[in-house]
Write a structure and sequence with these properties.
With 304 residues, the chain is an all-alpha fold. It contains 15 helices and no strands. It has one domain.
């Protein structure tokens, strides 16, 4: 029993570290996209992270073959969701027309904590109280507020903001739903399995992104800064964070980790604004606050 408790606590701590690493992703991904291209940067990140991860599993853990003995539904279903999420996220960041829009896209992407809890109800049988629905509404209101450009909140202003460049917002929302599905289905399909297939998922994502990069070449200007950012992204948010999150979702305290993940929009927005030197308007901070508050309300409404 003590060993199971320690394993649960360790997996939960790994989930918290994943949240901290992910909070840097939007800022650094946009910086890399501006220097070498969004798909180029992502392809190198995931190829490097996936190769290192698979080498670690094969050489150090000596269980590379064991990855392929994991449940088929987990390997195929969660693998496809993983690849889809990454493509949606990096296309959203790369197609954002400005750094301001990158911050907005990041806020919409971080609807996934609340969506994860929402999907945990039908998929994992999690029970919720009456405050759950208002929490979802608050989070969605925050996502609707983020694209506004101006001082007045209205449907007309929202429509005008979306018409300027709607694709990044749609991709970010799609990514949020896909990652919420990944997080819940990984627990359902492989919750008790030993180890995870994240290194394979990361490598497969890198191969798909490389194919996209070859099909749609991007202008690239490599610098020492770009190389450093790429190295950090390949090791931290790309490989370590995904592996830790996978462990937390399958064996950790999913409600606690999901609750703490609600702070990701705030942490990510702060880091993105500072790193990219963006002048954040009131709507961005209010949108971020609504997303965080909504996700926290959802978490507090889950029956433990």
């Amino acid at each position: 029993m003590d060993q199971l408790l320690r394993r649960r606590q360790l997996s939960t701590a790994m989930g918290v570290l994943a949240i901290l690493l992910w909070s840097t992703s939007v800022a650094l991904s946009r910086s890399l996209a501006e220097q070498v291209g969004a798909i180029t940067a992502a392809s190198w990140m995931y190829l490097a992270g996936g190769t290192l991860g698979c080498l670690y599993v094969a050489v150090v853990q000596k269980r590379l073959g064991g990855l392929f003995r994991l449940p088929t539904a987990y390997l195929a279903g969660c693998g496809l969701l993983f690849v889809t999420y990454v493509i949606c996220l990096y296309l959203a960041i790369g197609h954002a027309s400005s750094r301001q829009q990158v911050v907005e896209v990041g806020i919409i992407n971080y609807l996934w904590p609340g969506l994860t809890l929402s999907l945990a109800v039908p998929i994992l049988g999690v029970r919720v109280r009456a405050g759950f629905a208002p929490g979802i509404v608050l989070a969605l209101a925050g996502a609707a507020l983020a694209p506004l450009r101006g001082g007045e909140y209205s449907l007309e202003a929202l429509g005008a903001g979306l018409r300027l460049n709607p694709l990044p917002y749609a991709l970010a929302l799609c990514g949020a739903v896909v990652w919420a599905l990944y997080s819940t289905l990984s627990r359902r399909w492989a919750g008790e399995a030993e180890g995870g297939a994240v290194p394979l998922f990361v490598l497969a994502t890198g191969l798909v992104l490389t194919a996209l990069r070859l099909a749609f070449p991007e202008p690239s200007a490599w610098t020492c800064r770009a190389a450093g950012e790429l190295l950090f992204m390949a090791l931290g948010p790309t490989l370590v964070a995904y592996a830790f999150w996978d462990a937390a979702m399958r064996r950790g305290n999913i409600t606690l980790v999901a609750a703490l993940s609600n702070l990701t929009p705030l942490l990510s927005t702060i880091l993105t604004v500072l790193y990219l030197d963006v002048a954040a308007g009131w709507n961005l901070w209010l949108a971020c606050g609504l997303v965080v508050a909504g996700a926290f309300l959802c978490e507090r409404s889950v029956v433990k």
